[in-house]
Amino acid sequence: MQKGIKTQLIIIISSMIIFSAAALGEELKVGFIKSVTGSVSVKRGETVISVNPGDPLFKSDVLTTQTNSSVGIIFTDGTTFAVDQSAEINIKDYLFQPKSNAYAFELFLKKGKAIYSSGRIEKLAPDKVCLSTPKATVGVRGTHFIIQVD
Q1: Strand 102-117 versus strand 129-132 pairing type
Q2: Quick one: what percent of the chain has pLDDT higher than 90?
């Protein structure tokens, strides 16, 4: 193989790998941290990290707020979720792909209090939005509500 063709092939393959990895990372991102007060952490796999405004969130993340702490979340479809102190919430499932008509929004609030404000998923596929707690499951059919788990 000629040296020039080999170099071009390496550049093309490298570019494909880089762009595929970037696209995959964006696809997995479900939202971001809008605001943080006090001590808020996210458990991602086996790793626990403190969060800051602008940090991305991913499916399966578990957010925990400590006493006198809160966090504001904005999901990629525009849904907002404000979580109060001493809370724990798991992003169980999230999918927002309007071009392929694929949606999922499932959160589990283990404890604490949160305020939900719907985004585009609730408008486009209300049956795909679900918020569950240890004792109940809420099928969302409205735009705003407060939920508390003791």
Answers
A1: parallel
A2: 62
Could you tell me which residues come within 8 angstroms of residue 81 by beta carbon, excluding any fewer than 6 positions away?
Answer: 72, 73, 75, 89, 107, 114, 115, 116, 117
| Number of C-beta neighbours around residue 87 at 10 A | 22
Pairwise CA distance, residues 95 & 58, whole Å:
10
List residues bridging with 129 in a β-sheet. 105
Closest CA to 105 of 80, 88, 86: 80
DSSP 135: S
Distance CA(118)–CA(145), nearest Å, equals 9
Q: Which residue has the higher pLDDT, 38 or 18?
A: 38
Q: Give the single-character DSSP code of 128.
A: G
- 19-36: per-residue pLDDT in tens? 444 444 445 899 999 999
pLDDT number for residue 25 = 44
- The letter for the amino acid at 96 is F
pTM of the predicted protein model: 0.78
